[in-house]
Write a structure and sequence with these properties.
The protein has 787 residues and is of the alpha+beta class. The chain contains 26 helices and 24 strands. Strands 1, 2, 3, 4, 5, 6, 7, 8, 9, 10, 11, 12, 13 and 14 form a 14-stranded mixed beta sheet that branches. α4 crosses α11 (307-313) and α16 (458-478) runs antiparallel to α17 (483-495). It is elongated and about 95 Å long.
C-alpha cells in the first residue's frame, strides 16, 4: 500500500498523542484456483469431551490434545453451522511450520465477542499524564515513568492478551530503534527521523506519534449457515498525535504530515509477511486475529450451537499479563520523540443476504466419517480465497477503502473528533449501505458530537441526536439481530432520560446476547435512574457474575454498593458534610453525590466556559446528570438580609429577565421562607432543553454581606424526586456564619444591593439554565466511554 502525502485525511493527523498499534489480518487471497486440505473440528462433540473432564483446560491438554490444540489448525478459515445436529464446525488449514492455536484462544475470542460485543479485543499501553500536560493537549508527559497497560474485551490474563501485549511492545522497540529489523528495508522510525533532511530543518521540538497494524483489506462474510473469512491484507497506519514547534503546541494537526512516520508505516506494510516469518509473535497474532474475526462472526449470527454454554463451562489456563510498563522515550539530535502503543483485533462484518454456502456446507458434512467424530479432513478448491460451493455477491465498493475508513473513523471517534468520524463512516456507507458497523458508528458519532457541541446551536444539536436515533432504528429494522444497534439505542435513550425506551432497548440487546455485560450494566443504571434499586442490584450482580477483572465489572461492584446503601435498597440514608470556611458556608448532601468546583468542571468541559466566577460549588448526581445542584456566592459589601417584602419585589425581575433568555420559560411559583435563619426568596420555574421540559428551584438569600443562590435542576418528570431527596436536605442543613468580614461600602444602600442581586440573578440563570445544564449533560460522554 502506498500513501499520498497530498491526502492528509487518509493519513494520521488526529489531535491525539501516541503510538496505538492495531494488529489485524494478513493476506490470504489467492488469484488462481488451488486445491487445499482443510481440517474440521466439531464443537458439539468437543464440548461433550470437555464436559466429561469438568471443563478443565489442563486436563483437556493432557487427555484430549486433539481438542485442546484444535486438531492442529494453524490458520482459521470458516465456521459452518449444522441446524440438524445443532453443531458448529470450526474449519481451517494446518501446516507443520504454522503457529500453535488452542481451545484457550478460541474460548477467549468467543468470550470477547459474546460478552463484549460493544468493543473488540486488544490492548493499549498509554503513558500516564499529569494535569499540567493534559492542559497543553499532550498525551504523555516527562513527569511520569510508568505506562498503564489496559486490555479490552476481557482478554487480560489470557494467552491472547499476552500475545497482543508482546506484539505491541515489539513494535514500540522497533520504532524507537531499540531492536533491529530482521528484514532489509525496514528501518526504525528514529533512524528515519535522523535521516530526513526536511524534518531536521523544521522547528518541531517535540513529536508524539503512534503506529498500528491495520487491515487495508479485511472482511468476515456472514452467510446462511456459515461464517467466512475473505480478503485479508495487513497494513500499518501512522498518526501524529501531538507536536510542538519552538516549544509551542501545534494547534491543527489535521494536515501535519510527517515523512519519517509515513515511510516507517509503509515499509512495515510492504514487509509484514516477511516480518511474520521471522517474528513468531507477529505470526501468532495474525492467526489469533483471524480467530477473533471468526468469533465476531459467530456472535453476529443465529447459531444452532450454544456458544454461551461452551464458554461458561470451559476453564482456560490463566496467563499473567502486566498492568504497567516503563515509558519508552527516544531523542534524536533535534527533538524528543515519544511513542504510544496498542493492539485492536477488529473485523468488518458484512451480512450477505444474496450469498449462498449450502453446497460447501454439504461438502463439509459429507466428509464427516461418523456423527460422533470430533475432527476430520477434506479437500476443497479455492478461487480467490472463496471455497467451491460458496457464492459471494460482487461488491461495488473497495474493501481496502472501507477498512481504511473504518479504522480512521474509529480513531477519530476515540479522540473526540466526532464530526470528522461521522464523515468517515458515511463514506463507507455510500459503497456498503448495509454495513451495520459503519452505520452504528456514524450514529453514535453524531450523538457524541451533539452532546459535546451543545450550547452552540441547540436546534442543530438536537437534530443530530434525532438523526442518530433514526440511523440506529433503521439498522435494527434491517437487521433484527444487530445487538449493537439496540445497545446504542438504549444508551441514547437513557442519555435523554427516556428510561422506559432505554430499558426496552437493553432488554432486546440482552435477548440477542444474554451474556452482554455492558448491556446488563447500562440496564442497571437505568433502573437506578428510576429508583428501582432491587432491579438495579440484580443487573449489577449479573455483570459481576459474567466477568471479574474488567472496568465494567469494577463499576458494577461500586454501583451495587450504592444501591444497597440507599433507603429503598435496604440501607440507611447517608449525608456527607461540606464546609467552605472562607465563605462561611457549611451543608450536608446525599452520600452518592459529588462536589465539584468550577475548576473541576472546566477540566471536564474541554476548556468551554460553563460557569461564572461567582459559582463556587456544584453538587452533582454522578448517575443522573439531569439532577444537579449549584451554589453561587457573591459578595454584597455593606448589606445584610433584606426584608421579605424587598425579596418579593425581585420575583418580577427574575421572571422578566429569564423570559428573554430561555426558550419556553415560565414561572411556576415563588414564595418567601426562612433559610439559615434569614428570609429567602424561593423561585420555582421551568424551561425547555433538548426537547424536554426542565424544572428549576432556586433559593436566594443574603447573609453576612453575601448573596447565596442555591438552585436545583432536573427534568420535569424527576424534579419532585430531586427536590425531596436531594435539594431539600441541603436547604435544611445549610448553615452560614460570619467567617470573614467584608469592607463596608459607603455607596447607595438599597439601590446597590438591588443592582447586585439583579445582576447575579441574570448571570446565574443564564449560565445555569443554558451552559451548566448542557455541560452536565456532556458528562454523559464520560459514562459512555466508561461503559
Amino acid at each position: 500500500m502506498t500513501r499520498n502525502p497530498k491526502q492528509p485525511q487518509r493519513r494520521a493527523g488526529f489531535p491525539v498523542f501516541g503510538v496505538f498499534v492495531c494488529f489485524f489480518w494478513c493476506s490470504c487471497s489467492h488469484v488462481f484456483a488451488d486445491n487445499r486440505t482443510f481440517v474440521a473440528l466439531s464443537l458439539r462433540n468437543s464440548e461433550r469431551e470437555i464436559a466429561a473432564i469438568g471443563g478443565d483446560a489442563t486436563k483437556l491438554k493432557e487427555k484430549k490434545p486433539e481438542i485442546y490444540f484444535l486438531s492442529g489448525i494453524t490458520r482459521p478459515a470458516f465456521v459452518v453451522f449444522d441446524a440438524d445436529s445443532k453443531d458448529a464446525i470450526f474449519v481451517g488449514e494446518q501446516s507443520k511450520d504454522g503457529v500453535v492455536l488452542t481451545m484457550d484462544d478460541w474460548i477467549t475470542a468467543l468470550r470477547a465477542a459474546l460478552i463484549h460485543p460493544e468493543e473488540d479485543p486488544g490492548v493499549t499501553i498509554d503513558p500516564a499524564i499529569c494535569d499540567e500536560c493534559k492542559k497543553k493537549g499532550m498525551f504523555a508527559c516527562p513527569h511520569t515513568s510508568i505506562q498503564n497497560v489496559k486490555f479490552f474485551a476481557g482478554i487480560a490474563n489470557t494467552h491472547l492478551g499476552e500475545i497482543c501485549y508482546e506484539a505491541d511492545w515489539w513494535m514500540k522497540l522497533l520504532s524507537a530503534g531499540k531492536i533491529q529489523s530482521p528484514v532489509n528495508g525496514v528501518r526504525s522510525f528514529i533512524d528515519l527521523v535522523g535521516e530526513d533532511g526536511q524534518a531536521n530543518r523544521t522547528s518541531v521540538s517535540l513529536l508524539q506519534t503512534r503506529f498500528w497494524f491495520y487491515p487495508v483489506i479485511n472482511r468476515v462474510n456472514l452467510l446462511d449457515n456459515m461464517v467466512l473469512l475473505q480478503d485479508f491484507q495487513m497494513g500499518v497506519f501512522t498518526q501524529v498525535m501531538y507536536a510542538e514547534e519552538n516549544g509551542r503546541p501545534v494547534v491543527d494537526l489535521s494536515h501535519h504530515y510527517n515523512a519519517p512516520s509515513d515511510k516507517f508505516a509503509t515499509s512495515l506494510t510492504e514487509s509484514f509477511g516477511a516480518l511474520a516469518e521471522s517474528q513468531k509473535v507477529l505470526a501468532t497474532l495474525r492467526e489469533l486475529t483471524r480467530l477473533c474475526a471468526l468469533a465476531k462472526g459467530c456472535g453476529r449470527t443465529s447459531s444452532p450451537f450454544d456458544f454461551r454454554r461452551l464458554i461458561s463451562n470451559y476453564h482456560d489456563v490463566k496467563v499473567a499479563t502486566p498492568p504497567t510498563k516503563e515509558v519508552l522515550v527516544q531523542r534524536d539530535l533535534i527533538r524528543k520523540l515519544e511513542f504510544r502503543g496498542g493492539v485492536e483485533l477488529k473485523a468488518l462484518a458484512m451480512r450477505l443476504k444474496e450469498g449462498d454456502a449450502s453446497a460447501f456446507r454439504q461438502i463439509v458434512l459429507k466428509a464427516r466419517p461418523t456423527t460422533d467424530a470430533v475432527s476430520w479432513k477434506f479437500f476443497v478448491k479455492l478461487q480467490n480465497g472463496v471455497p467451491e460451493g460458496v457464492t459471494v455477491p460482487p461488491q461495488t465498493g473497495s474493501d481496502q477503502d472501507a477498512a481504511e475508513l473504518l479504522a480512521q473513523g474509529r480513531f477519530l471517534y476515540i479522540n473526540n473528533r466526532f464530526d470528522d468520524a461521522a464523515r468517515c463512516f458515511e463514506s463507507i456507507l455510500k459503497d456498503f449501505p448495509n454495513c451495520d458497523d459503519a452505520a452504528c458508528m456514524k450514529a453514535i458519532s453524531l450523538r457524541e458530537e451533539a452532546i459535546t457541541a451543545s450550547g452552540h446551536s441547540l436546534a442543530n444539536d438536537f437534530a443530530k441526536v434525532q438523526a442518530a436515533m433514526q440511523i440506529l432504528e433503521q439498522v435494527a429494522k434491517r437487521n433484527p439481530e444487530c445487538v449493537q444497534a439496540f445497545f446504542q439505542l438504549g444508551v441514547t435513550h437513557r442519555a435523554f432520560r427516556h428510561s422506559t425506551q432505554a430499558l426496552d432497548d437493553f432488554a432486546r440487546a440482552i435477548k440477542l446476547v444474554p451474556d452482554f455485560a455492558a448491556a446488563h450494566y447500562m440496564m442497571g443504571l437505568t433502573w437506578k435512574d428510576l429508583k428501582n434499586y432491587t432491579n438495579a442490584a440484580t443487573c449489577f450482580r449479573t455483570v459481576i457474575a459474567l466477568e471479574s477483572n474488567t472496568e465494567t465489572a469494577k463499576d458494577a461492584s461500586e454501583q451495587l454498593v450504592l444501591v444497597q446503601q440507599s433507603p429503598e435498597g435496604g440501607g440507611r440514608p447517608t449525608l456527607k458534610g461540606y464546609t467552605i470556611q472562607q465563605r462561611g458556608l457549611s451543608l450536608r448532601y446525599p452520600g452518592d453525590w459529588l462536589v465539584m468546583t468550577p475548576a473541576e468542571l472546566l477540566k471536564r468541559a474541554n476548556g468551554n466556559t460553563i460557569v461564572t466566577p461567582e459559582c463556587v460549588l456544584v453538587i452533582a448526581n454522578p448517575d443522573n446528570w439531569n439532577q444537579n445542584l449549584t451554589i453561587q456566592i457573591k459578595d454584597v459589601p455593606g448589606y445584610n438580609s433584606p426584608a421579605p417584602q424587598e425579596l418579593e419585589s425581585f420575583a418580577g425581575t427574575i421572571n422578566q429577565q429569564m423570559g428573554k433568555e430561555l426558550d419556553g420559560f415560565k414561572e411556576v411559583s415563588h414564595r418567601i421562607m426562612n433559610v439559615a435563619n434569614v428570609p429567602a426568596l424561593v423561585f420555582d420555574s421551568s424551561s425547555l432543553a433538548w426537547g424536554q421540559r426542565q424544572r428549576q428551584r432556586s433559593v436566594l438569600l443574603v447573609k453576612q454581606q453575601r448573596l447565596y443562590t442555591i438552585t436545583c435542576t432536573a427534568i420535569e418528570s424527576e424534579f419532585a424526586d430531586a427536590e425531596t431527596k436531594s435539594f431539600q436536605p441541603i436547604i435544611d442543613t445549610l448553615e452560614i456564619d460570619g467567617a470573614s468580614s467584608l469592607v463596608q461600602s459607603t455607596s447607595s444602600g438599597y439601590k446597590e444591593f438591588h443592582m447586585d442581586i439583579h445582576t447575579s440573578v441574570k448571570v446565574f440563570f443564564a449560565a445555569i439554565a443554558v451552559a451548566l445544564v448542557i455541560i452536565l449533560i456532556g458528562f454523559l460522554r464520560d459514562i459512555y466511554k466508561k461503559t
